[in-house]
Design a protein that fits this description.
about 50% helix, mainly alpha, about 200 residues
Length: about 200
């Protein structure tokens, strides 16, 4: 085990979670003795671990179990949901039988079960809408046409912007070149005129 200042955090976590052997734990403790500035970090990690609360007990663990393919576990926590599914005819025959058996065995749920079964909305198939074609969305194959002058205006703006950038870049170079040309072309007797006077 090679613990150093680059990988000590991993070993501190393993130490805190009690996942190291006795020799590895001793190596971590030796490392902490050699690096006293890291002692508080290990102390902080060991005090921040979570311990299980053994006083809390879950009485009904049955609903935590996974249901088999054709088996539903119906209980007080999920009976209303299954009553609605029963009323919407979304359960298999075996599942419906289990719901009915649950209601039979627990008479206190009979009234809510019957109430949910009586609240069914059924469509009135005798009524119809004569103008159904109005409800359909019709898509045309035509693409929206951008006017030509929009394209022309966009191109002109791009050319104008490019020209401004070009002039801005070249104008900063021009005064230096003019001064260089004046110095090389003028004889020594003449006086050069400053650019500011031009």
């Amino acid at each position: 085990m090679n613990i150093n200042r680059h990988n000590y955090e991993e070993y501190f976590l393993l130490y805190t979670d009690n996942e190291l052997s006795a020799l590895e734990r001793e190596a971590v403790e030796r490392f902490v003795r050699d690096n006293t500035d890291l002692e508080k970090e290990l102390e902080l990690l060991t005090t921040s671990t979570f311990r299980p609360d053994n006083e809390i007990i879950l009485e009904d663990k049955q609903h935590l179990m996974r249901a088999e393919a054709n088996k539903i576990f119906i209980h007080a926590g999920n009976c209303e949901e299954l009553f609605v599914l029963y009323g919407d005819d979304e359960l298999s025959n075996g599942e419906k039988a289990q719901v009915e058996l649950f209601v039979y065995d627990h008479p206190q749920y009979q009234e809510p079960f019957e109430l949910l079964q009586s609240v069914k909305l059924l469509p009135d198939l005798t009524r119809g809408f004569p103008g159904k074609k109005v409800l359909y969305r019709h898509e045309s194959n035509k693409r929206p046409i951008t006017p030509f002058w929009w394209k022309l205006a966009a191109a002109a703006v791009m050319v104008l912007f490019g020209g401004i950038l070009w002039l801005n870049n070249t104008s900063s170079l021009v005064p230096e070149k003019i001064v260089e040309l004046q110095k090389t072309q003028l004889p020594e007797q003449t006086v050069a005129i400053p650019l500011n006077d031009l």
